[in-house]
Design a protein that fits this description.
The protein has 131 residues and is mainly α. The chain is built from four helices and no strands.
């Protein structure tokens, strides 16, 4: 497990480095393009640097056991639907489950308050009967 964690940490560092390099290349390219007299050779080199950075970012991988839910594969990938559609569907499902959980939690809190109130009433009426 420690080896996987170390590998994941290295992978995250690689991703962070690749993203930083890509952003740096984009900013440098943007600055070159914004110049009053842009240097075409420098722009070409900047584009090549950006492409190399993006290739490096694409090649970073993690040896994780990642599996797609069959529902995603069957309903979206096999049906030529967008993964964004899957994301929207999952968000709606999560929101519905969250709303249901919140309603149950609220109902239990209300029940607990009623039980406490009934217990307090019973305690006060039994102490009044003891007098």
């Amino acid at each position: 497990m420690a080896d996987t964690t170390a590998t994941s940490a290295r992978t995250l560092e690689q991703i962070d480095h690749s993203v930083s390099e890509s952003l740096s290349a984009i900013h440098a390219l943007d600055a070159q393009v914004q110049q009053e007299s842009p240097d075409n050779a420098a722009i070409r080199d900047g584009i090549a640097r950006l492409v190399n950075c993006m290739e490096g970012l694409r090649s970073v991988s993690c040896p994780a056991d990642l599996r797609l839910p069959m529902r995603l594969v069957e309903e979206f990938v096999d049906a030529d639907r967008s993964p964004d559609d899957f994301t929207v569907a999952m968000r709606k499902l999560v929101e519905a489950v969250e709303a249901g959980g919140r309603a149950k939690s609220d109902a239990l809190a209300s029940l607990a308050a009623q039980v406490e109130a009934a217990g307090a009433d019973a305690a006060s009426s039994s102490s009044g009967a003891d007098r």
